[in-house]
Amino acid sequence: MTDKVFSAIQEHNMLGEGEAVTVALSGGADSTALLLCLKELGYGCRAVHINHNLRGEEAMRDQHFCEDLCARLGIELKVISADVKGYCKSRGLSAELGARELRYKYFEDIPGKIATAHTLSDSVETALFNLTRGCGIKGLTGIPPVRGKFIRPLINCTRADVEAYLRSREQGFVTDSTNLVADCSRNIIRLKVIPELKKINPAAEQSFLAAFCALREADRMIDSEVERLLKRRGDEYDLTEFTDGAAFSRAVIKILEEQKIEPSKDKTDALKEIILTGGKINLKKGIYAEGKAGKLRFTRDTAAPEPVRITLRENAPLWAAELTVTKISPFDIFDFNNDELRFLIDESKMADMYTARTYRGSERIALPKRGFSSEIKKLLTAENRPSAVVIDDGKGAVFVEGVGVAERVCCDEKTVSAYKIDITKKERENA
């Protein structure tokens, strides 16, 4: 494995001879092998361990393992305790997405290069995940070997290579129990899909590596063509030299990213159409794109839309609440993860009148994809029950704070526009 790691470092110019690097150390097999291998190859290593505080005693076990390992190897270790739950709650993110976002925020504050333990196996999983959701060439190239200050020295090594290396060094590691259950897309791909592919070709991962190399070269050629042809001035873009091909699609995606708009097939197709035929579309709240004769211009509303405010009835004696309702139009279901979708209401399924209040006795709500209704009281913690906001439309509860929306108003592939409800609470002065 050391030969593969050294070859990847040289091929992608990751590190100079003896250069110092910080290893993102979780204590799992991949990061443990990465730390040992880089030290063995003579690079100056430091390590950082981020405790996400999501798995109780298991998370502390991982931290202690990393502390013991680094002490034994004589490697400096920085431990960061992250409040992932609080971060996710404040931003309405899923635990997985919030943990990743917060992790990279901490990494950005660390000087120098950071080595992460992404392997060829991880890259294959990513490519299959992207292909399943729908993607272009870039999505099929797997995980990039280098991205800014982040390097992936294990990018040509399989998980089997890692485990064999650790066995040869008689080095143990810890295992994240959440990775062993096929309850999310990546775990399903790792635990079920890839083993089936290996029945067809035991060397499937190496075949993917060869494809990644070819696709990355094609990707670089497209990027080069985009840079050559695309002309820009602020929020105005000139695409008159493009034909309707791969470079044109990549240019549109690049423009969306520059405008801080998450690219999707619908948005890309809509922009391409107005660039070629003319027209104006609303891409995001307050952001408009206008195309004419091969040129594209972005404009923004300067005035923020007036929020809709609803105040709790007096049957919530301890709290006052302000509900801000934000319209999302045009709506693309693929712009949101499952955790975000459960708090969005399809506009077309909304009633004319709504009431915000606390829950009532044994009232129930039917959450999406469950096939049954649940008692709201049991969905809330004892601490949250007295003040949790419930919204009903005269037919029953359609939204419960911290829980989600009812199935009859949830968003799906046919949703055109949706509403997001944000709740701000302030304890009354006389409470």
Characterization of the model:
- The protein has helices at 2-11, 29-40, 57-73, 84-91, 95-108, 120-133, 159-168, 185-200, 204-229, 246-258, 265-277, 338-341, 376-379, and strands spanning 20-24, 44-51, 77-81, 114-115, 146-147, 150-151, 231-233, 236-238, 279-284, 287-292, 295-300, 319-328, 344-346, 355-357, 364-365, 374-375, 390-392, 397-400, 404-405, 418-427.
- The protein is an alpha+beta fold.
- Helix 2 crosses helix 7 and helix 4 packs across helix 5 (95-108).
- The longest helix has 26 residues, at 204-229.
- It starts with a helix and ends with a strand.
Work out the oligomeric state of the chains in this entry.
Answer: single chain
What is the helix tally? 13
Average pLDDT figure: 84
Given helix and strand content, the structural type is: alpha+beta
Number of domains: 3
Corresponding CATH superfamily of the largest domain? HUPs
Helix content class: 25-40%
Q: What form results from the Cα inertia axes?
A: globular
Enter the CATH topology name of the largest domain: Rossmann fold
- The rounded distance between the terminal residues' Cα atoms is 64 Å
